[in-house]
Amino acid sequence: MKTLIDTHSHIDLEDFSNDLNITIKNAAAAGVEKIIIPSVDRNSFEKVIKIAEAYENIYCALGIHPTEAQNSTEADFETIEELCSHPKVVAIGECGLDYYWDKTFIDEQKQVFLKQIKIAKNSKKTLIVHDMEAHKETFDLLTNNINGEIPVVMHCFSGSVEFAKECVKQGFYIGLGGVVTFK
Question: What is d(CA 40, CA 17) in angstroms, rounded to the nearest whole number?
């Protein structure tokens, strides 16, 4: 039997603070054997690790979400590098490019993404990638910098079938989320 892993669950958000135990128990009852909580900014690093430490089947990822790129500092990346050796940290992310919400800091997004690609490669961790309306640029940065060295999860995939096929050819995993219900 295959293992069902929720590779992207933001159960660290305030919405879950009152019923986190119930949420985790319900996931297990539904067959989810492991959950990975991705961080999105420096303020979430310690929280996701703390939750992961409290539950045997919970793990986490450390990263800077593209919409937080303009707020990131070099200290954030140093912290990710330091904390990624923690046994509950299994990936780097959620990182990538997001041209949907704001296109005024694209260069910063690319630089932050590249820094996290480098951390993932150096630590041999899976990279959890956020890509909204930036498919070509995201794909190019990945293929030019990953070289098949680490696993890549295209989180909440929103591209075309053709783009999915290109990602799969590169060995990337495709994560399906709520966006598959959008027109």
Answer: 17
